[in-house]
Amino acid sequence: MVSLVKLCQRQGPSHKSIYYRPQPRHRVVKAVLAVRVKLALERFPSYGYRRLVSVLGENRKPNQRIQRLKG
C-alpha cells in the first residue's frame, strides 16, 4: 500500500491540491447601488449593462451582479 503523499510525489501534483475543496463565496449586494440600478432601469428600460454603467458612473461588475441577481 502506497501513501497518497508518496504517490503524488511520484506523479507530480501536490497532495494538498488533492484534498482542496473550494469554499462557497457569499456576494453582498450594496442596497444603495441596487436602488440606483433599479431606478435607472425603470427610467431607461432598453439600456444594457454597459450603457447603464456609463449613466450611473459605477463599476461594471457590481452592476452586472445586481442585474443578474435581481432579474
Radius of gyration based on Cα positions: 22 Å
Helix and strand run: HHHHH
Residue-averaged pLDDT: 85
Tell me the helix content: 55-70%
List the helices and strands and how they pair.
Elements: H1 4-11, H2 15-19, H3 31-43, H4 49-56, H5 60-70
Describe what is shown at a glance.
The chain has 71 residues and is mainly α. It has helices spanning 4-11, 15-19, 31-43, 49-56, 60-70.
Describe the overall structure.
This protein has 71 residues and is mainly α. It has a domain at 28-71. 63% of the residues lie in helices and 0% in strands.
Task: Please name the defining characteristics of this protein.
63% helix, 71 residues, single chain, mainly alpha, 5 helices
